[in-house]
Design brief:
Oligomer: single chain
Largest sheet: 5 strands, mixed
Helix content: 25-40%
Shape: globular
CATH architecture: 2-Layer Sandwich
CATH superfamily: RelE-like
Strand order of the largest sheet: 1-5-4-3-2
CATH topology: YaeB-like fold
Structural class: alpha+beta
Number of helices: 3
Distance between the termini: 30 Å
Strand content: 25-35%
Length: 86
């Protein structure tokens, strides 16, 4: 599995605090080994985001991604719960 990143994700990642960037980098390593590791709380979303999944990054921060038929994933957004699910 390869992880790719949308332009929007990259912009949000760069704007995030350093501590969140570090937490995401650590969670990404876990994700690439086992995307359903309990620490990630990987879960499917509903409503207008029903094709997406979410993993926990730190506290209230989440990263949203979609799975491709190839098995790869594209991270689409990163932010707080309230930023992402408005």
């Amino acid at each position: 599995m390869n992880a790719k990143f949308s332009k929007k994700f990259i912009e949000q990642y760069r704007a995030a605090p350093d501590s969140i960037q570090k937490s995401f980098d650590e969670r990404l390593l876990i994700f690439l080994i086992d995307k359903f590791d309990q620490k990630l709380n990987n879960h499917r979303l509903s409503g207008k985001l029903n094709n997406s999944r979410s993993i926990n990054i730190s506290g209230d921060w989440r990263a949203l991604f979609v799975e491709l038929s190839s098995g790869d994933v594209i991270f689409k957004a990163i932010g707080t719960h309230s930023q992402l699910y408005k």
